[in-house]
Amino acid sequence: MRWKGRRVSSNVEDRRGGGGVKAGGISILGLIVAFVAWKFLGVDPQQAYQATKQVTAQTGAAETQGLDNPTPDQQEAMDFVGTVLADTEDTWSQIFQQQLGQQYVPPKLVMFSGVINSGCGTAQSAMGPFYCPADQKVYIDTAFFKDMRTQMGIGGEQNQTELARQDQAGDFAQAYVVAHEVGHHIQTILGISEQVQKARAQGSKAQGNALSVRQELQADCLAGVWAHHNNQRTQFLEQGDVEEAMDAAHKIGDDYLQKRATGQVVPDSFTHGTSQQRMTWFGTGFKSGQVESCDTFNQAI
């Protein structure tokens, strides 16, 4: 993925470092337990955090401060995320104007380490990246990108020299994760998230989970729409990049994560969609480049 040399967004808040709780030392068990519990089993974020806290035996402050003297790797991570966010800003501004006749208002992106307070409550880095509609911010710990490679095997087949570079294989998979969370922002400003929330409140848990799956698959599709148009605008994709995103979509499917975490698959508890569904809907958005193709609520999934 070609990303260097383009605009870096000013909508990034760096809250890494300082005296907050650190994410280091989290085992694969701790990562998977919290990530599955919160993102894929519908557990309340606060409960998921407490569960992870017990697993990792971590205590301390609830929020971290920004880095005063970031290392070259930390600065490069900041530049990478900032560039991807800027790409979403420029691309979605164009899409909103051309396809929706609206003005796009971008989200803020908060980089943190350990534990942070968001508009949606306390969150822990092991839960993975998330979007909070209450404050319209994307929250991400870039250590999750390393976990994608080392613990989830996404883009992890390259040698250590290659992995040391930020332009390594797997970077588009990381961009896909950011674009997916920005997809939730799109749903919020279009009123889709509010409609889903109301519908979930009126139905059963199984019905609520089914709606959540459709919402998440739509965010995957919107990430594909972004990739389609951003590539036309910047030619940022290289050979193998789309396959990396597909690999990421596969390995964060409900069925894949549940089987890895517990050895069992419980379809009624799915909240994000199967690996195949996530790959399919990202591909749908990427091939069409049209927001209207992402109507997961009125199409078979």
Lay out the secondary structure.
Elements: E1 12-15, H1 28-40, H2 45-56, H3 72-100, E2 108-112, E3 115-118, E4 121-124, E5 130-132, E6 137-140, H4 143-150, H5 160-163, H6 171-189, H7 192-202, H8 205-234, H9 241-251, H10 254-262, H11 275-288
Parallel strand pairs: 1-2, 2-6
Antiparallel strand pairs: 3-4, 5-6
Helix pairs in contact: 1-2, 1-10, 3-6, 3-8, 6-8, 6-9, 7-8, 8-11, 9-11
Write up what this structure looks like.
The protein has 301 residues and is α/β, with parallel strands linked by helices. The protein has one domain (10-17, 27-38, 64-155, 163-291). Helix content is 53%, strand content 8%. The protein contains eleven helices and six strands. The chain has helices at residues 28-40, 45-56, 72-100, 143-150, 160-163, 171-189, 192-202, 205-234, 241-251, 254-262, 275-288, and strands at 12-15, 108-112, 115-118, 121-124, 130-132, 137-140. A four-stranded mixed β-sheet has the order 1-2-6-5, covered by helices on one side. The protein has a two-stranded antiparallel sheet with strand order 3-4. Helix 3 (72-100) crosses helix 6, helix 6 (171-189) crosses helix 9 and helix 8 packs parallel to helix 11 (275-288). It starts with 11 loop residues before the first strand and ends in a 13-residue tail after the last helix. The model is unreliable at 18-31, 51-65 and 156-169 (pLDDT under 50). This is Metalloprotease. It is a single-pass membrane protein.
